[in-house]
Design brief:
By secondary structure, the chain is mainly beta. It contains 2 helices and 32 strands. The strands form 7 sheets. It has a 6-stranded mixed sheet with strand order 2-3-28-27-26-25, with no helix packed on it. It is globular.
Length: 372
């Protein structure tokens, strides 16, 4: 199969928006930093499908992202396929190149260096030369969306689909809950699992997506149980930090953390500082208005998304250093899109993917737009 590469390297001149760099301190425990949005001359750009109307494009998110072992960045979108960035140019992979579908929910690099994509029409992988499809569910399945992919320490691949979770051991792919050895006393279904994670003890965690309704589920090698901390049944994001804590982003009630024994409400406790008073003077906690992806950087800081922009405003991104939080406010020109993914590159920059297939790089001082 001949792989067609659509390389976008656009050199345009823009006038950067000087959105001040003044630091406003609200108190000793939280900072809010207003930043500027810039566009550097002669930089590469991620070019989206320009024929799509704006209403449709708002549902085209940069939904997932990955830094591979060669320090290349991958961005999966829900409408424009996959973009690969080698630091110099963007390459766009679509169904014309063998991608199962242009709606990509998840991306993973396996132990051998293959890049896997979970799409609306099943799974495929890129071996560095071409894209090949991989059958997870029966061919006659009408709901073949794959929302999440994990490879565990043993090398087993886990796939979260609309119809449940499947496991691939290198020989065959089977539905996880059809294993008679799995104790499932609560009769959990594991449908629409949006994230899968393995913790430091080898437990596998599953996060219920929209309509799943099971909160977070944990498989300890024998039995599967579920939790609904904060009362959340829809938990779109999960993160394991270097200390072994597991962080969850709940759709309705904000962020919470699990230290191996108890769940702590990060929004109401330490996280109460994450959202300052809004312009009307009313307290606006993150857990009441939004959710978003999380990231741990190389120095151990945890990054969060503040208020989802599309739900009322300028929450920006937040950095938690273990003691206090710093807010980097979304600058004018960032757009009205929600933030859907974050990834740190080899140089410590944070790449933020939003709706409208928009991409920004944050270098600690300003946001730079890498899309058009």
């Amino acid at each position: 199969m001949k792989l067609k590469r659509f390389i976008t390297s656009i050199f345009l001149t823009f006038i950067g928006t000087a959105y001040c760099m003044a630091q406003v301190k609200a108190d000793s425990s939280k900072d809010s930093i207003l930043l500027r949005l810039t566009t550097i001359n002669a930089q590469p750009k991620l070019r989206t499908n320009q024929s799509i109307d704006r209403l449709s494009k708002l549902s085209h998110n940069i939904h997932c992202s990955l830094l591979d072992r060669a320090d290349n960045l991958w961005f999966g979108t829900t409408g424009d396929g996959v973009y690969h960035f080698d630091g110099k140019s963007f390459t766009n992979f679509t169904v014309e190149d063998g991608l199962s579908d242009n709606c990509v929910w998840s991306v993973l690099e396996d132990k051998t260096g293959n890049i896997w994509f979970g799409t609306d029409a099943g799974v495929c992988f890129y071996d560095g030369k071409s894209i090949a499809s991989f059958q997870v569910e029966p061919i006659d399945s009408l709901r073949r969306a794959v929302y999440s992919i994990l490879q565990d320490q043993r090398g087993i691949l886990w796939f979260g689909t609309a119809n449940g979770v499947y496991c691939y051991d290198g020989k065959s792919c089977k539905r996880f809950l059809e294993n008679d050895n799995v104790i499932n006393q609560k009769g959990l279904h594991l449908k629409r699992v949006e994230r899968i994670l393995e913790d430091k003890d080898g437990n596998i965690w599953f996060c219920s997506g929209m309509g799943g309704g099971e909160g977070v589920c944990r498989y300890d090698g024998n039995s599967i149980t579920n939790f609904k901390p904060n009362g959340d049944v829809w938990v779109p994001y999960i993160l394991k930090d270097k200390a072994g804590n597991i962080w969850f982003s709940g759709r309705s009630h904000g962020y919470f953390r699990f230290d191996g024994e108890i769940f702590t409400d990060f929004t109401e406790g330490v996280g109460a500082i994450l959202i300052p008073e809004n312009q009307t003077g009313n307290s606006c906690l993150m857990g009441k208005v939004g959710f978003g992806p999380m990231l741990e950087d190389k120095t151990g800081n945890i990054w969060f998304v503040g208020k989802m922009i599309r739900f009322g405003g300028d929450g920006g991104i937040w950095r938690y250093d273990g003691k206090s939080c710093t807010n980097y406010s979304v600058p004018q020109g960032f757009g009205d899109e929600g933030i859907w993914s974050m990834v740190e590159d080899a140089e410590g920059n944070i790449w933020v993917g939003t709706s409208n297939t928009s991409l920004f790089r944050f270098d600690g001082k300003c946001f730079t737009r890498y899309s058009e």
